[in-house]
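User
Please review the sequence:
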Amino acid sequence: MWEENGDIKKAGKTIEKGKHRFVEVIVSGLDNDRENERMSQEGIDDMIKQFKTSSIPFFADHGRDPNTGEPNVYSWKGMMGVWTDAFQEGNHLKAVVRLNNAHPDVEMFWKFLQEGMPIGFSIGGSPLEAPEFLEE
């Protein structure tokens, strides 16, 4: 995690100036995850391209409504950042998120990261297809 001073540009126009916070994390990979699923190399390559477009929003808690707990309540108000970059390091897919300074919880989130709290990240994907049996 790091901070940078600078301008954020979109379509050649400066849309935000000032200090920006970035976090680099593992979001997926070629190894089995906690649901015993893993991404293919083709899937990793595709996700890297998507993250690099800086158009994928970052939501806390998979869009769960903080008041009711209802899942998948995605709203622009809950956007905690935007994914800006990604790369593969060994079997891991790592991505970089730029935090949204206007989100009411971003300061607390940043402090949790500074304190080394075990915050997990997930791309929240679901397999589209998988072989019935995977040979090792």
About this structure: The mean pLDDT is 85. Residues 83 and 113 are 17 Å apart (CA to CA). The chain has one domain: 19-114.
